[in-house]
Each structure stands twice: as structure tokens, then as C-alpha cells.
Automatic annotation (TrEMBL), chains A, B:
<keyword id="KW-0479">Metal-binding</keyword>
<keyword id="KW-0432">Leucine biosynthesis</keyword>
<keyword id="KW-0963">Cytoplasm</keyword>
<keyword id="KW-0560">Oxidoreductase</keyword>
<feature type="site" description="Important for catalysis">
    <location>
        <position position="179"/>
    </location>
</feature>
<comment type="subunit">
    <text>Homodimer.</text>
</comment>
<comment type="function">
    <text>Catalyzes the oxidation of 3-carboxy-2-hydroxy-4-methylpentanoate (3-isopropylmalate) to 3-carboxy-4-methyl-2-oxopentanoate. The product decarboxylates to 4-methyl-2 oxopentanoate.</text>
</comment>
<dbReference type="GO" id="GO:0003862">
    <property type="term" value="F:3-isopropylmalate dehydrogenase activity"/>
</dbReference>
<keyword id="KW-0520">NAD</keyword>
<feature type="domain" description="Isopropylmalate dehydrogenase-like">
    <location>
        <begin position="2"/>
        <end position="334"/>
    </location>
</feature>
<dbReference type="Pfam" id="PF00180">
    <property type="entry name" value="Iso_dh"/>
</dbReference>
<protein>
    <recommendedName>
        <fullName>3-isopropylmalate dehydrogenase</fullName>
        <ecNumber>1.1.1.85</ecNumber>
    </recommendedName>
</protein>
<feature type="site" description="Important for catalysis">
    <location>
        <position position="128"/>
    </location>
</feature>
<keyword id="KW-0464">Manganese</keyword>
<keyword id="KW-0460">Magnesium</keyword>
<comment type="similarity">
    <text>Belongs to the isocitrate and isopropylmalate dehydrogenases family. LeuB type 2 subfamily.</text>
</comment>
<feature type="binding site">
    <location>
        <position position="87"/>
    </location>
    <ligand>
        <name>substrate</name>
    </ligand>
</feature>
Length: 345, 345
């Protein structure tokens, strides 16, 4: 197993160290190459993602990423030039984001139901396409545009993936989230594709919700969701909210996947670089560890993935959530649990 | 006071009847003209908003709208052809949406703080501009686009309005919500305008949050918000979520305002037509009643607006939230409270 690791910015390196500790317990022979992409490299050299590095990354089975973003870098530079460039160059069309309320974890909701959903977020088009511009900048007649681009090719492949996932889950339910009553063109395409693909999955029940209504139900009735399929921007918003109601982005893992396997997929915690707590050794590495489980699942190492998930579930059920311990201590605990092959549920 | 009333679809007519009952207590001399726009008219005549009706609407001091939308009409027809057309034709650039957690109201949050915020949502541009299209429809090469259009003219006027509102509130705090790290063009314009206008408001503290992070804080720390200013689509999403955490869209009022007063402003509950409960007489008219208070404020009838708000606050603090009563009964209660000039706080 050849893995590229991009620790990145802020708490990225801190949580990645623990994720690798846990990975070492299940795949001790993994070959790991580190890449120093991120804010520091940009400051030092002006480089974001050199072609040569991109070429090297392509030679790996998967990529593990910590976080990208730093207050010392103008907004958008690292995000568009590094993180989104990786997602687009490596055709990460399925952005997979599970949200599960683990036993023992406190939700900000008063009366949380069982929550176990997965958001299949489109990852290579929509409003993230980078299409748009500024006209008459800095004049009273300035116009800024952002173009959401949606193709039947791009929409169909994520919708197919979402249906396949739904068909493999006990509840077999899929919700399309969009804003078809306002974004009528993109909404029409998404709705038609979902309708067409649903014909091949009579076993999956299908629902539709407007994105605004979905945010309401994510706080009043999150248990209703099984698989959500949605566009890049709505997926960005919904997955942060879904993470919040299931205990916070400190626990939320994600996979940026090319499900055709032509390019290596990239796994990363949803939390980002969290500059406010960086360098203090207090970041929770759980989301990074769960991202390793997603990575292993993607590479077919399901048994190892289940061991990691079971260890996280055990730790979350038993940890003192007021003082869960330092970053390294949580990593040590999870590594020990994985090595002792703890099982839950 | 010449008011145009559009009861509209679903529960619209039911809640509007109660809103007018309450209005009658404070402005008995209001001259009211009803317009039967909505699903029924469209089915009967194919008309959505005839020019002649639009011309008549312009002759009024304000418009009170119930709800627009019906499952029997394809998605987008009524929304774009009637509701959004009214907002755009009448230049409703400030979409004002207060979110307050009233004493006695149950939030879905476990530990809700005091919440008293107002979202100033841009109402006439952004992704709602209706710009975009379909190319190669129904082929494997279909492309659907949606263009978000943002002008310095359009952004500046809502940002100015938001700062003016913030300056008049005790906390004097304004949060710009956008996604500047991805939507770099529109994000750049919004950020620059906020920065410029902030120079004229040294008394207002300014914060920025990405829309995804804002959804997290709306459930983990909603007390932090005072005034939020944001674009049309983010505002749509955030205001439904803000309504949810403050007890539901059954209580959320809104104003679609042309603050220059060149066109009549339009006031409406956020909840929409709720076809699932329409015709049963069980819809909560409180949001419609609070929309009347916003309408009166806009027309300078502040004393009457305060009376209505105080009555709603009193009713919410004392009502049995399990069985708040039928639509008409809540309306009767609120009308009686207004007529007895109840005061709270
Ligand atoms: C950092 C940012 C570009 C990114 C996104 O918007 O996709 C992040 O919010 C995420 O969800 O992974
Ligand atoms: C019905 C729909 C067009 C509308 C919107 O998106 O603005 C509604 O959701 C709202 O918030 O008033």
C-alpha cells in the first residue's frame, strides 16, 4: 500500500501524526511519502501544487490529507490552488461524508434520534467549477459572477454512486437535496437524472427536499436521512451542519473519491486547519482516524476499516468528553484499542 | 393605509385571515384589496402575474402575502413566475428576516442561549437572478448552468442597510456570511463592499464566516449573531435554519423590502404553503401576524407594531405549545391581546 500524506496547515500535521499511528497498527507495511504542500511552502516558494508533485501523487494508491488553509494566506489561494485543484485534477467526483451520532457523543440537539446518514456530495462541478469573474472591478458598476456548471456526465456518476450506496444500506432510502424551485436549470437536470437512475433501483425509496428545508430537518428530524445526494455547494453546507448535529466536525471524516480508480482518492477530516487551536496539541484526531478507515474501505481493507471504526466507537462511548485528552493521548488510546482488536455492537 | 393582500396557496389564506383580524385591531381603517394570485388562478387561466395586476399592486402602500406554491404545479412555475417575479419587479432588495427565541418557545437545541438576530438577505440578485440555461437537454452531453450575478450597486445597498440596522441595535455587531474561499469573485466583491461601508460605521464590529461554518454556529452558538448580511441563496438557507433553532418556521416573519420606498414592500411568513396541513385549520398564524408587525414598522406605525409583538410574546410565553389551538383560535387570542394592549418585558 503506497500512501501519499499531505499533513498541510494548522492542526493538519498534529492529527495526521495520530492517524498514521493508528494506521500503523493495521497496515504496518504501508509505504508512506510525505508532501509538504500548504501555507509554509507557498510562503517560501510561491508554489501551491507543482506539476511534478501532482505527477508523483498520482503514483500512489491513496492520499491522506490533514488540512489546508492559513490566516496568513489570502482567502481562496490555498483552497482553490491546492485543495480544490487536487479534487479537480484527480477527478474526485464522489465526496463521501458520513454523519453518525456515536453512542456517548453529545449532540447539540435536545432530543437527538439515532442518526446514521451519508452525504454523497458531487465534487468536481457545480458552483465550485471556478467559472466566473469580475467586470469593472473597483468601480460603482462592478459585476461579479459565479457560474454553477452541471453536466449530465457529472451528475449521473454521483447519482449512480449514491443509489448504489443506498441499495447496500439497511434503510435503502435516498434524498436528493437541491433548490429546484429557484435554480430551475440545474434543478431540472438533477431531478431528471435521479428519476432515471431510480428506475434501476426500485428497491430504493426516493425523496426530494429543497436545501433550505433540509437544514430545518437536519435539526428537527435528522433521523429521517439515510443517503443524501446533492451538489458541491449544498453538500459543503449540509455536511458541516450534519457534522454539527452529530457532535461536531472534530469527528467528521470524508473521502474525495474517484470511484473509477483511475486516480488516487484522497481522505481528509472535515474540520480544516483550525488555526485558533493549532500548535497546542489539543486537536481531536478522531476525524483523521476515521478518514483512515474510509481510506482502507476504499482500498478493500474492510476488516481493518471495521477495526478502526470499532475502536473509535469504543473510545467515544467511554471517553470523558469534557477532557478527552491531548491529541497524542487520544491517538495512543485509539492505537491501543486497534491493536487489541476491540469490538463493539 | 392601502394594503394589497395576496392570500395565495395552501395555508396562505388561513393564516392571512388571522393576520388581518389582528391588523384590524390596530388599523381598523386599513383599506384592503385582495388579489387571487397563485395556483388556482394559474390552473384556471394560465396567468401568474398579469401586468395589469402588477400595476395595481404598485398603487398600494404595502403588500401582505400568505404563501405561494402547490404540489399540483410544476416546481419553479409559481416560485419564479409569481413570488420571485414580485420580489424582482418591486425591487425588494432587502429581504429582512428576524430570528428571535421567544420566552416559552421550545428550541430543538439542548441548551439554547438568548437568540435575537436579524438576517439581511439580498433579494434581487445572486444565484436567484434566473440567469442560466440548459444546453443539449436530454442528451448524454447535457449542460445546465446557473449564474450568480452580484453587482456593486446591489451588494452595496443591502450592506448599507445591514450596517444601519446593526448600528441601531444594542450589540452593534455584523457578520458577513459568504463562501469567499471558493466563490472568489462574488466573495471578493462582498468582502470589499463590507470593508468599505464599515469605515463609515466604526461603532459596528464586523465578523466574517463561511456559510458552512455559519450553519455549525447556528446550532452550537447561535447567541453570537446580531445582524447577518448575506446573499440571496445563503440567506435562504440560513434563515430557515435560524427559524428552526428559534422554534420553527411557524414563527418566522419576513419583509421583502424596497427600502427606497419607490415600490411597495411585501411581507410574508417564511413557512410557505405547507400543503400537507392545508385546509385543516391547524396552521399557526403567528408568523403571518409577526409579518404584519414588520409591515407596520416599515410604514412608520411603530407603536402598533410593538403592540402586536408584545401580544405575540405574551401568547408564546403562556400558550400550551403541545396544543396551541386552531388557526382561528390563535388569531382570536392574539387579536384580543392586541385590543387589550398587553405589554411585556
Ligand atoms: C476549504 C474549503 C474549500 C472546503 C470546501 O468548501 O469544500 C471545505 O469547506 C470542505 O468542506 O472540505
Ligand atoms: C419559495 C422560494 C422561492 C423562497 C425562496 O427561495 O426565496 C422561499 O424558500 C423563501 O425563503 O421565501
Amino acid at each position: 500500500m503506497r500512501l501519499a500524506v499531505i499533513p498541510g496547515d494548522g492542526i493538519g500535521p498534529e492529527v495526521i501524526a495520530e492517524a498514521l499511528k493508528v494506521l500503523g497498527e493495521v497496515v504496518p507495511a504501508a509505504e508512506i511519502t510525505r508532501y509538504d504542500l500548504g501555507a509554509a511552502r507557498w510562503h517560501a516558494t510561491g508554489e501551491l501544487l507543482p506539476e511534478s508533485v501532482l505527477g508523483e501523487l498520482r503514483q500512489h494508491d491513496a492520499i491522506l490529507l490533514g488540512a489546508v488553509g492559513d490566516p496568513s494566506v489570502p482567502s481562496g489561494i490555498l483552497e482553490r490552488g491546492l485543495l480544490l485543484r487536487l479534487r479537480f485534477e484527480l477527478d474526485h467526483h464522489v465526496n463521501l461524508r458520513p454523519a453518525r451520532l456515536y453512542p456517548g457523543v453529545r449532540s447539540p440537539l435536545a432530543d437527538p434520534p439515532e442518526i446514521d446518514m451519508v452525504v454523497v456530495r458531487e465534487g468536481t462541478e457545480g458552483p465550485y467549477a471556478g467559472n466566473g469573474g469580475l467586470l469593472r472591478k473597483d468601480t460603482p458598476h462592478e459585476i461579479a459572477t459565479e457560474v454553477s456548471i452541471n453536466t449530465s456526465f457529472g451528475v449521473e456518476r454521483v447519482v449512480r454512486d449514491a443509489f448504489a450506496r443506498a441499495a447496500n444500506r439497511p434503510r435503502r432510502h435516498l434524498t436528493l437535496v437541491h433548490k429546484t424551485n429557484v435554480l430551475t436549470h440545474a434543478g431540472s437536470l438533477w431531478s431528471r437524472v435521479v428519476e432515471e437512475v431510480s428506475l434501476q433501483h426500485p428497491d430504493v425509496t426516493v425523496a426530494y427536499q429543497h436545501v433550505d428545508a433540509a437544514t430545518i430537518h437536519l435539526v428537527t428530524d435528522p433521523g429521517r436521512y439515510d443517503v443524501i445526494v446533492t451538489d458541491n455547494l449544498f453538500g459543503d453546507i449540509l455536511t458541516d451542519l450534519a457534522a454539527a448535529v452529530t457532535g461536531g466536525i472534530g469527528l467528521a471524516a470524508s473521502g474525495n473519491m474517484d470511484v473509477t480508480r483511475r486516480n488516487p482518492s484522497m481522505f481528509e477530516p472535515v474540520h480544516g486547519s483550525a488555526p485558533d487551536i493549532a500548535g497546542q496539541g489539543i486537536a481531536d484526531p478522531t476525524a483523521a482516524v476515521l478518514s483512515v478507515a474510509l481510506l482502507l474501505d476504499h482500498l478493500g481493507e474492510h476488516e481493518s476499516a471495521r477495526r478502526i471504526e470499532a475502536s473509535v466507537a469504543f473510545d467515544l462511548a467511554t471517553r470523558d468528553h469534557q477532557s478527552p485528552g491531548a491529541t497524542y493521548a487520544i491517538g495512543d488510546r485509539l492505537a491501543a484499542l486497534v491493536s487489541s482488536n476491540v469490538r463493539t455492537g
